[in-house]
UniProtKB/TrEMBL annotation:
Xref: Pfam families: ABM
High-level lineage: Bacteria, Bacillati, Actinomycetota, Actinomycetes, Streptosporangiales
Protein name, entry field: ABM domain-containing protein
Skewed-composition ranges (Gly residues): 101-110
Organism (species): Streptomonospora halophila
Top-level lineage group: Bacteria
Domain called ABM: residue spans: 2-66
């Protein structure tokens, strides 16, 4: 499962946002089921940022969010995210070499 949260970060607040996002991801990375993350900024709109995390599944993500350290680090960040769906089931994936695989438990292809 992937979680994609998007943020509008005003000029002058980007360094603080990045520090907060890195702290939130660091706390989540210590939880079981965490697979990886990316923090990015839109190439065409430097005020638009995203934090993407990958998890073994929705249960791992929900359990991570209930952890005290994650709540302390991530909730302030998540509370500033755009109000839109953010959790997605992976139904297909392709690695850098072009190999395709199913998304995982419950994933359907085709």
């Amino acid at each position: 499962m992937i979680v994609v949260t998007r943020y509008t970060v005003p000029e002058g607040e980007q360094d603080a946002f990045l520090a907060g996002a890195e702290a939130a991801v660091e706390a989540m990375a210590r939880r079981p089921g965490f697979r990886g993350s990316r923090i990015g900024r839109a190439a065409d709109d430097p005020l638009l940022w995203t934090v993407v995390t990958e998890w073994d599944g929705p249960g791992a993500y929900r359990r991570a969010l209930s952890n005290f350290d994650v709540r302390v680090a991530a909730v302030p960040l998540l509370s500033t995210a755009r109000n839109e769906p953010s959790a997605f089931e992976v139904v297909s994936r392709r690695d850098g070499a072009g190999a395709e695989s199913a998304g995982g438990p419950g994933a359907t292809a085709g």
